[in-house]
Structure formats: structure tokens, C-alpha cells
User: Which sequence fits this backbone?
């Protein structure tokens, strides 16, 4: 069985973060492992504002040493890292063990928050992790921050951002237009350093989209572990997450999760 790893935060509500990753890894038939970087809780009395409690970087390192002592996973992803020192620890361990198929999801912005989360991490992710990435998966806001272009309003802006982010060393870039770019089609732009490819699906009009970004990156990770090419892994992930959003459920007044099991429920054959 292929082993997959997520280095990410815990979303207490179970829809995003490492919980989304583990569920997705399992749906793909891979054996998921975790290194927890932070714990996210939400304040119901305060408009669902997010609190992020970070795990000490030394403890993140202990978790990674435990995992890598059994050999390299077939693929891994990073999500919310929480602390700049943790980013350095991740870089150190990945440089030491040189695993293949590294997916960097540069979590800087959370759907549950209006503002930018942990934007001070952007530069560190850019310089320390993107050079190790097989693929990075920023959403529109994260791509604007990482590229330094700010708000991305046109397809040409998105393509320019992809070129800049590719220049930081990620072999492939997929910028998720999602619901933010167009109100008819969820367009994601894939760039391999030479050509652009556009992945499109109809926009699903729902608020139950919590966890979509994490799940998309986790599905790419599991697809790579199973031997798909990077573009094939992105294509499959797009379908997987589309169906997960379609089958989302309301959690409370503030939040609705996607359902990570939808692809299999719909009778799809997982690779
Ligand atoms: N309402 C939607 N309908 C269809 N696809 C969506 C919708 N929202 C997001 N997606 C897709 O889900 C994936 C995750 O995107 P997004 O939710 O923008 O990421 P993030 O959670 O990082 O902000 C992308 O493939 C995106 O195109
Ligand atoms: C631990 C963690 N990681 C990542 C995210 C981002 O979630 P999404 O996949 O909805 O963008 C969240 C959002 O709450 C989170 O709690």
C-alpha cells in the first residue's frame, strides 16, 4: 500500500486541514499519516473567528522523524504550517530525506475568515518550500500574495502569477480560480513552465465548501502516490472535489463541509 503524509493543521470541525487530508487519502486507498503543526478552533460567540494554536516546531520535528524513520512516503503535502520556524523544520527534514511528490498547499487564507491568515508565512514558504515542490496549489488570494501581484482580476493576471510562482522553483503550479474568479465556471489554471492548461467545472452554488482547498491538494497528493502524472492527478482531484462540494452538508450557521466520500459514493472507480 502506498503511504501518504500530510504536514498540516487540525481543523477541529473535521472538514478541512489534516482531517480532510486523511479522509481523502483513505478514499484513494492510500495509507495516510500526519504531522500536526497547529490546532484551529472557532469562536461561536464571535462570528466564527478562527484561533490558531501552534505546535512547538521541535514537536513537529519529532513527528516527522518518527514518520521518516519508516522510510519515505510515496507522496506528501503541506497545509497550514502555523509558524515560520516550523517551515524551516519542514524544509530541513525534506532536504535530508529527499522524498518524491511534494505538494505545497500554501495555506495563507481561510474561507472562514474575511482577512488573510498567516500572511507573514508567505515569504518563507516562497523561499524555503516552493523550490522543493512538485506542485503548489494556491487559491486566487494566495497566488496574488505569493506572486506579489496583489489582486488577480483577469486570466492574464492569473497566468502572470503562475509564471512568477513557477520561477520560485515549483515544477508545476495550479492556481485555483474556484468561486472567486468567475461566477459560472470554477476555472483552475495549471502551468508546467511551458504551457497553460485550464480545468473547468460548473460553479456549484452552495455555502458548503469548507475543506475544498485542502481536499483538492490531498487528492493530488494521493493521485501522485498512486503513480498518476502531475496533470492527471490534478484532473482527478478536480472531479473528486467537485463531487465532494456537490454533496456538502451544513454544519452550523457559519459553516458547511464538503463530503470527502462523494466520489466513491457516486460509484467512481478510484485508481
Ligand atoms: N462553488 C464551487 N463550485 C465548483 N468548484 C469549486 C467551487 N469552489 C471551489 N471549487 C473548486 O474546488 C477546488 C478548491 O478551490 P478553493 O475552494 O478556491 O480553494 P481554497 O479552499 O484553497 O480557497 C478548486 O478546484 C476549485 O475550482
Ligand atoms: C487547519 C486548517 N487548514 C486549512 C484550512 C483551509 O481550509 P479550506 O480547505 O476550506 O481552504 C482550514 C480552514 O479552516 C483549517 O482549519
Assistant:
Amino acid at each position: 500500500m502506498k503511504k501518504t503524509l500530510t504536514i498540516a493543521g487540525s481543523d477541529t470541525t473535521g472538514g478541512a486541514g489534516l482531517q480532510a487530508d486523511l479522509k481523502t487519502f483513505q478514499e484513494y486507498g492510500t495509507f495516510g499519516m500526519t504531522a500536526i503543526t497547529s490546532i484551529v478552533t472557532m469562536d461561536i460567540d464571535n462570528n466564527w473567528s478562527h484561533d490558531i494554536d501552534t505546535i512547538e516546531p521541535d514537536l513537529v520535528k519529532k513527528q516527522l522523524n518518527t514518520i521518516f524513520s519508516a522510510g519515505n512516503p510515496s507522496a506528501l503535502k503541506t497545509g497550514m504550517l502555523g509558524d515560520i520556524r516550523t517551515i524551516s523544520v519542514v524544509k530541513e527534514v525534506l532536504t535530508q530525506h529527499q522524498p518524491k511528490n511534494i505538494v505545497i498547499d500554501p495555506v495563507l487564507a481561510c474561507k472562514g475568515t474575511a482577512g488573510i491568515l498567516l500572511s507573514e508565512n508567505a515569504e518563507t514558504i516562497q523561499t524555503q518550500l516552493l523550490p522543493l515542490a512538485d506542485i503548489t496549489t494556491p487559491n486566487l488570494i494566495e497566488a496574488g500574495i505569493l506572486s506579489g501581484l496583489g489582486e488577480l482580476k483577469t486570466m492574464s493576471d492569473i497566468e502572470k502569477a503562475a509564471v512568477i510562482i513557477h520561477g520560485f522553483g515549483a515544477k508545476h503550479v495550479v492556481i485555483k480560480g474556484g468561486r472567486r474568479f468567475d461566477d459560472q465556471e470554477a476555472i483552475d489554471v495549471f502551468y508546467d513552465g511551458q504551457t497553460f492548461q485550464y480545468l473547468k467545472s460548473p460553479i456549484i452554488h452552495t455555502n458548503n465548501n469548507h475543506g475544498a482547498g485542502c481536499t483538492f491538494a490531498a487528492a493530488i497528493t494521493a493521485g501522485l502516490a498512486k503513480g498518476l502524472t502531475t496533470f492527471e492527478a490534478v484532473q482527478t482531484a478536480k472531479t473528486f472535489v467537485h463531487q465532494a462540494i456537490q454533496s456538502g452538508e451544513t454544519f452550523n450557521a457559519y459553516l458547511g463541509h464538503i463530503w470527502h466520500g462523494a466520489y466513491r459514493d457516486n460509484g467512481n472507480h478510484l485508481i
About this structure: The mean pLDDT is 94. Residues 3-149+203-265 form a domain with the UDP-N-acetylmuramoyl-L-alanine:D-glutamate ligase fold (CATH 3.40.1190.20).
